[in-house]
Structures are given as C-alpha cells and as structure tokens.
Amino acid sequence: MMDWTDRHCRSFHRVLSRRARLYTEMVTTGAVIHGVRERIIGFDPAEHPVAVQLGGSDPKDLAEAARICEAEGYVEVNLNCGCPSDRVQDGRFGACLMQEPETVADCVAAMKAAVKLPVTVKCRIGVDDQDPEEALDRLADAVIAAGCDALIVHARKAWLKGLSPKENREIPPLDYDRVHRLKRRLPAVEIAINGGLATIEECRRELDFVDGVMVGRAAYHDPEILLAVDPVLYGEDAPVPDAFAAVEAFLPYVERRLAEGVPLHAMTRHMLGLFPGRPGARRWRRHLSSEGVKRGAGVEVLREALALVSREPRAEALADHA
Fold it and tell me: Is the same domain home to 220 and 259?
C-alpha cells in the first residue's frame, strides 16, 4: 500500500470506522531514522488506533526505528515480510525475508527489546519454489520464539522473479486453508489473514478460522466497506450513517489541511472510490479529478462533487449508471 495509505487516507478511513486498526504505508528504517519525521511518520491523533509498518532487515536499525515510532505514539510496530516489489528486494526486505526466518527472528527480538509496543509480522505463505507448509511454519516458529505478538499472513505465495507486484496480488492462487492450518497448529498465537477479501461478509466468515482480517486494496477502492466494520464485526453503530455523511464529516479535516498548504487533490484522491453503484458516481470522480487538482481548489469542489451523486440507495450491482 505504498503511496496509498498516507495520513490523509487514514484520516478519511477513520471517519468510516472507529474500530478498524489502520496501518501506515510501509516506511523504510532509513526514512524513519534519517528523514523528516513529521512528513514520513506524522499522523493525526484522530487516526488512532494506528500501527506503523516498517521495511528493513537490520536488527539495530529496526530497533531504532521502532523506538522512534513508539515515541511518536503508534500502537503497534509491524515488520513487512510480504511486499514483492523489485525496490524492496534490492533493499533486502519485504517478501525476500521469507527465505531468512532467522534474520526476521533477530529483527523481531531487537524490536521487542527496544519497545513496549506489540511487534507483529506481515508475511506470505512462501516465495518462489518454497513449500508453503515448510516455509510458513519455519517463519512463524522463528518469530514467535523471538517474541512476535501476532502474524498477519497474506494467503498466497510471492514470486520474486518474473511477476510484477500487481501480478503477485492476482496470479499466485490464494490458499486460505494454509493460514487456517497455521492457526490450528498455533491456537495460542494471534493470526490474521490477508489477501483477496473484498466484502465484509467474507471477512466475517474468515473470523470463524482466524483471529483477524486485514483488507487493503478492496477497502481503498470501495471505502464504504468500512462502514460495515463496526456494526457487523463489533455490534456497534457506524460513526456515520452513510458515505454522504462521511464526506461531510471529513470536511473539517480537509479545511484544516488546506490552511496548512496541503493541496486538495492530496486528500480527495483517496475518496474517488466512493458511491459505486449510484447514479452520479462517475461525475463525482470526474469532478474531483478535474477540479481538485487546480491551484487553489477548496472544499467547495468536494461539495460540488457531492451534489452530483444521487441519494438513492446503492445498487446491488456495482455499475455506474451516470
């Protein structure tokens, strides 16, 4: 989710659910340690609960980055061992660490010694020609022995050579049963599942087998999924009744950031997926895309775009009737 789940995205998603735990885009240890911290890992307190996801493979650097993130107020430090991009491989972190469970364990142990926060690992079921039964068990056993508090498992292999990051989200087959078997083998370990989950009902069904679910692109492209999290998964009212109210509730944040010099499109680009299946959804996207990028664009652009969307109930088929 690099370049996607930035602070503006998370602030909007928090409007839709009080309970969902939000994660940052993956940030490297070098960026955290040497970069401008407010720009790299700054967040609005209203985003809580929010976790930071780190990329790295040096225990000392990860420990230092974790200390910094703890001081910034994050509630969890997550180590990414699942991203398959070339950029990540060149830096020897992400999914390639599935081949180095002992290194990952050293990283977890160093972070656990450095902070009081929960330290978690996000991984794949394996990479390349690894046997998922052996690869996932080896990594899980190593990091749990090192003190890992929870595992988030993307239920498909990653192919480090020959497939693009996009293809790595689609071509290797999903294997939810593999993650379920891991949970049965390690009943005392908190295990969450990730990959291909697109509806709240799919998430709810998975909770019969594992402790948690992580949803990435599906929630980004159709943020209204998050409106169902609190009522369906926690038995609580959603923070707002619908997507229209969510946009209205987000306006004060937008106004505050505009006053700080943040351009409107930096925030509205995360809202383009709203209103699928409703007449006017295409006009909503087009208006934000064309007017939101203009110099000096303000909240009136959001209000104008909202007025273009029909208030009739969302259609069953996610087709744009505009």
Answer: no
Claim to verify: residue 145 and residue 287 sit in the same structural domain: no
pLDDT at 134 over 80: yes
Please, what is the Cα angle at 256 between 252 and 257, to 5 degrees?
120
Which of 69, 83, 96, 123 does the annotation list as catalytic?
83
Number of domains in the chain: 2
Q: In whole angstroms, what is the distance from residue 317 CA to residue 319 CA? A: 5
Are 280 and 178 within one domain? no
Q: Is 83 a catalytic residue?
A: yes
- How much is the pLDDT for 320? 40
Residue 49, preceding peptide bond in cis (omega within 30° of 0): yes
**Mean of the per-residue pLDDT values of the chain:** 92
61 and 140 fall within a common domain: yes
Q: What is the pLDDT of residues 165-221, one digit of tens each?
A: 666 556 778 999 999 999 999 999 999 999 999 999 999 999 999 999 999 999 999
pLDDT of residue 91: 59
List CB contacts of 195: < 8 A, sequence separation 6 or more: 154, 155, 156, 169, 174
Q: Answer yes or no: do 226 and 119 share one domain.
A: yes
Q: Measured between alpha carbons, how far is 155 from 166 in angstroms, rounded to an integer?
A: 15
Do residues 157 and 130 touch, judged by C-beta distance below 8 A?
yes
Looking at the structure, tell me whether residues 180 and 62 fall in a common domain.
yes
pLDDT value at position 94? 84
